[in-house]
Design a protein that fits this description.
Elements: H1 3-30, H2 44-70, H3 76-98, H4 110-135
Helix pairs in contact: 1-2, 1-3, 2-4, 3-4
Transmembrane segments: 7-28, 48-69, 81-100, 112-133
Keywords: Membrane, Transmembrane, Transmembrane helix
Length: 146
């Protein structure tokens, strides 16, 4: 496989990992165990920023590099992997947005409330770039007569 396919695979995995991380943090904020001592000092904002920097930021960069490397000739497989990553991120953010009404009031901050909306909106360009890459036609080479 070419390097751009591996970048697209890694990007897709990081998008899915980010969605899983956000869902797990939101699930933790819903079902907080009563007997844990550090709950009084738990703040979700730094953890969410950490997941953004570990998961979705590198995923977006890898998807962009994969797109730039393959936009000249187009690739259905790379475009579909980028689209799948965007769709999985959208689904994960939708699930985490649906969990907002169950979260304890102590943990509801602006970051907790707006991160799912922000990344649902940002998944649309990722999906559209992947769709554009699947529809890209290969350029015909120039014929040299001499």
């Amino acid at each position: 496989m070419a390097i751009e396919k591996w970048l697209a695979i890694t990007s897709m995995g990081l998008f899915v990992m980010f969605a899983g991380e956000i869902i797990s943090v939101y699930n933790f904020m819903i079902y907080v165990p009563e007997n844990i001592e550090f709950i009084q000092v738990f703040e979700p904002d730094p953890k969410i920023f950490q997941f953004i920097s570990i998961g979705v930021a590198p995923a977006g960069i890898l998807a962009a590099v994969s797109y730039i490397m393959s936009k000249q000739y187009g690739s259905k497989s790379i475009g579909s992997m980028i689209m799948i990553g965007g769709v999985m991120m959208f689904i994960g953010m939708y699930v985490s947005y649906s969990m907002l009404d169950k979260i304890n009031e102590n943990y509801l901050t602006d970051v907790v409330m707006y991160v799912p909306i922000l990344f649902m909106v940002l998944s649309v360009p990722v999906i559209s770039v992947g769709f554009f890459l699947t529809k890209q036609k290969k350029k015909r080479p120039k014929k040299e007569y001499f």
